[in-house]
Amino acid sequence: MRIQHLIDGQAVESSTYFETVNPATQAVLAEVADGGAAEVNAAVAAAKAAFPAWAGRPATERAALMRKLGELITKHVPEIARTETQDTGQTISQTGKQLVPRAADNFHYFAEMCTRVDGHTYPTPTHLNYTLFAPVGVCALISPWNVPFMTATWKVAPCLAFGNTAVLKMSELSPLSAARLGELALEAGIPKGVLNIVHGTGKATGEPLVSHPDVRAISFTGSTATGDRIVRSAGLKKFSMELGGKSPFVIFADADLSRALDAAVFMIFSNNGERCTAGSRILVQRSIYQDFAQKFAERAKRISVGDPLAESTIIGPMISQAHLAKVRSYIELGPKEGATLLCGGLDRPSYAPALPAGMEKGNFVWPTVFADVDNRMKIAQEEIFGPVACLIPFDDEADAIRIANDIAYGLSSYVWTENIGKAHRVAAAVEAGMCFVNSQNVRDLRQPFGGTKASGTGREGGTWSYEVFLEPKNVAVSL
Ligand code: NAD
């Protein structure tokens, strides 16, 4: 199979192609067009040409097309989920039941929202001020390889619904599901040039895209290092930067420990641990630490690792051999830094079943739990982005807040306690864009999603998406 760029409604061939492989088997899934500055320039030109007519259409018409695309995604959930699972190793239970259906929701939600954009008025005795919101123009939308279909639609839906046009660049490690999105967008009747997709590497395709003078806004999801590079090279543009994380999951002794245990297991091991909001630093109050650590490791040992297309699998393969090597390097580092390995490790543990036939060369790693972790260790400070949990003891509320904030990142956070005052105090004190109290990460499309510190700038979701996809203008009328 060959995947082409989508430029001005046409499938555009490339002089070179790269392969995308199934991380469970290493089998080649497709050859993908390998773009560069020429394809980026053509895609931006198409998006620029399509912008005036698209922005000028009534919001109700754009909304109808967004809904149609949402319906087409819903119709094709099993097919898209299978493609996504084969391309990324994310399990079918996640892609089929959560991630692809949520992608359809993104279109339905922003279809509604774009018809509700209103302004503000600031009357004074001498002037009537009011604000208008206009689309920005051509937007560069850049997605990472984890949950790529959901992330791409989380950007494409508000971008297009609000009247902008887009050039979407997927990660070179997971391009397949977005290629299908491009086809479905045309089928839905979205005019040519409104959504363009250019495939390729960050260097050859991403760099010319973000630095293109006709690109007015960048919505980027990816690593902190790349986000930093883009901000430096892109020049004056609107930005939304959704970057890495190393989120604290704080469990006080007075928490509902059974629910906290379930949520802690879910937040580090679901999505293969390749989740930006993973609760990867699990801070546990010292009086319950030993008991919790033992129960947590028992649960981790029972997690099924294997074929991502099997409904019962919880952890599939890591996205690439390079990423597997990175995750393994942290598993190797943990004991050297003084952490205690409770389960998992570099090789398949004796309690874990063998991998399915044909998947022996897959990028698999077993759920790994480190206890006695000091927050200053590298395994606690750096984003591993795999199924590796660090259990860190703390003494009291002040100690928990100190450890939670002793990190470069600030994406998500989780607090578990039955003491309502303490829950609110810690939620307010923790340096993060999001805090979930007695809950795992539950997304509401209206909430501001994003992080602080090294986890990014800007927020998306609900009216927060105005920040990147709409330009406010104040009009002052003399009375
Ligand atoms: P990455 O930064 O390596 O790549 C992300 C995207 O940027 C890819 O499409 C890549 O090709 C492109 N890119 C690379 N260099 C570029 C450049 N110089 N200019 C323009 N584009 C460039 O990230 P990744 O490894 O694909 O994804 C994992 C990271 O994403 C993790 O750090 C994770 O925490 C983060 N992430 C964050 C969120 C969030 O919402 N905050 C969500 C998912 C993932």
UniProtKB/TrEMBL annotation:
One Pfam match, by short name? Aldedh
Q: Which UniProt keywords apply?
A: NAD, Oxidoreductase
**Protein's UniProt name:** 5-carboxymethyl-2-hydroxymuconate semialdehyde dehydrogenase
Locate the Aldehyde dehydrogenase domain: which residues? 14-475
Family matches, as InterPro entries: Ald_DH/histidinol_DH (IPR016161), Ald_DH_C (IPR016163), Ald_DH_CS_CYS (IPR016160), Ald_DH_CS_GLU (IPR029510), Ald_DH_N (IPR016162), Aldehyde_DH_dom (IPR015590), DH_HpaE (IPR011985)
Q: Known NCBIfam families for this protein?
A: HpaE
Q: Which domain of life is it from?
A: Bacteria
Locate the active site.
Answer: E242
Q: Which organism is it from?
A: Pseudaquabacterium inlustre
Q: Which family does it belong to?
A: Belongs to the aldehyde dehydrogenase family.
